[in-house]
Write a structure and sequence with these properties.
This protein is mainly alpha-helical. Helix content is about 40%, strand content about 5%. The protein has six helices and two strands, in the order ααααββαα. Strands 1-2 form a two-stranded antiparallel sheet. A hairpin with a 2-residue loop joins strand 1 and strand 2. Helix 3 packs across helix 4. The termini are far apart. The C terminus is likely disordered.
């Protein structure tokens, strides 16, 4: 259901909670979820999110074990609105920036690349970034022994605008 796919991106913690269910000690309680997410959400928010994930068909309990029904939620270029994707990422970036000092350095891996490249390479860079994400997902998709949940953010932020030959000449003529 497209509305449910949009709703799962409406709150930064929904997809993280979806991933928590594969942990061997998972408990379907708000207290457990809040604790695992380092109290970044309240127990009632965890319960609400879990209820949504179950009712929308993202999670299912089967023989006493919880399962993610569709392990990959592709946000693609045309699947969701640009506004929804930006809101989702903004929420996550805000949580990260507000809590960076909360997380132990040992558990963090941070890298930031600043690149100069020709405009003609941007589509290739975008494809490489998507391929990297697909590679990571495929590498871990059937991993039976998950013990933690992490987020990896992959961003290309255009900090400068490419100049083109059609640039308007703003010099004063005499």
């Amino acid at each position: 259901n497209n509305k449910d796919n949009e709703k799962i991106l409406s709150e930064w913690h929904y997809l993280l909670i979806r991933e928590l269910v594969v942990l061997p000690d998972f408990e379907p309680t708000g207290e457990y979820i809040s604790e695992k997410l380092q109290k970044l959400i309240k127990p009632h928010e965890g319960e609400k999110a879990l209820r949504f994930l179950i009712e929308a068909g993202f999670l299912k309990e089967e023989s006493g074990r919880w399962k993610i029904l569709d392990p990959v939620l592709d946000t693609g270029d045309t699947i969701f609105t640009d506004e929804l994707i930006k809101k989702y990422h903004s929420q996550n970036l805000k949580i990260w920036s507000e809590n960076l000092n909360l997380w132990k350095s040992k558990g963090l891996e941070m890298g930031l690349l600043n690149l100069s490249l020709p405009a003609s390479k941007i589509p290739e860079l975008k494809e490489k970034m998507r391929n990297f994400q697909d590679h990571i997902l495929g590498w871990l998709q059937n991993e039976p022994a998950a013990h933690s949940v992490v987020q990896i953010g992959v961003y290309r932020i255009p900090h400068s605008v490419a100049e083109t030959s059609t640039r308007r000449d703003t010099r004063r003529r005499s």
